[in-house]
């Protein structure tokens, strides 16, 4: 069975601090995909990144970076020099295309509050 | 390009009434998903379609819920009769399925309140 755990339900930081959001997943499949989505206060779900299980290279996009480690089944998300606009709920998700089609299993989300 | 379009954005209804939520996926996408988000249960997949055919509806809570996709550009999620516990945000998402697991793009959601 798929499972995604985001142990941090809420994080509060002050602007310009770095913050890391943790994501731990469980899967029996060797082929899987991991995703991060952002849900700002306006409510929509915004896609941030998609990573397949064969690509363990870390990714950086501006102030965002992702650390994928298969050895610990983790796909952590770091925001460098956080800004107030980063305040949102962030979801990690897992997909096993060959066992569960294109269905996404979401973690419970981490609410990030960035204070000025 | 237009993203996923959902209507209505907000719906307030009384218990027992029929509710119909609508979704227009991104043009060219062949998979469509309906999710429900609540504080208690988080994001749950209700049903998904591939090439207009329902593939997995195991997440549909009960017979009061039904979903259709009559063509590639339109889907509905119907609740009849509605109950207060159906109050939630309902999201529609679409993707271009190519055999792997392609990114799902979400609509803005429909916030449903059943009184």
What does this protein look like?
- The complex is a heterodimer of chains A (116) and B (115).
- Chain A is mostly beta strands and 116 residues long.
- In chain A, 3% of the residues lie in helices and 51% in strands.
- Chain A contains 1 helix and 12 strands; from the N terminus they run E-E-E-E-E-E-E-E-E-E-H-E-E.
- Chain A has one helix spanning 97-100, and strands at residues 3-5, 10-14, 19-21, 24-26, 33-39, 46-52, 59-61, 64-69, 74-79, 88-95, 105-106, 110-115.
- In chain A, the strands form 3 sheets. In chain A, strands 2, 5, 6, 10, 11 and 12 form a 6-stranded mixed β-sheet that branches.
- The radius of gyration of chain A is 14 Å and the shape is globular.
- The termini of chain A are far apart.
- With 115 residues, chain B is mainly beta.
- Chain B contains no helices and 11 strands.
- Chain B has strands at 5-7, 10-13, 19-24, 31-38, 42-50, 53-56, 65-71, 74-79, 88-95, 105-106, 110-114.
- In chain B, strands 2, 4, 5, 6, 9, 10 and 11 form a 7-stranded mixed β-sheet that branches.
- Chain B is globular.
- The A-B interface holds A 32-33, 35, 37, 43-47, 50, 52, 91, 95-97, 101-104, 106, 108-109 and B 31, 33, 42-43, 45, 48, 50, 55-56, 89, 91, 93, 95, 97, 99-109, 111.
Short account of what is shown:
With 116 residues, chain A is mainly beta. Chain A is 3% helix and 51% strand.
Give descriptors for this structure.
heterodimer; A: mainly beta; six-stranded mixed β-sheet; four-stranded antiparallel β-sheet; 1 helix; B: 115 residues; mainly beta; seven-stranded mixed β-sheet; 0% helix
- Structural class by sheet pairing and helices of chain B: mainly beta
Give me the secondary-structure category of chain A: mainly beta
| Percent of sequence in beta strands of chain A | over 45%
Q: Can you tell me the overall shape of chain B?
A: globular
Mean pLDDT across every amino acid position of chain B: 93
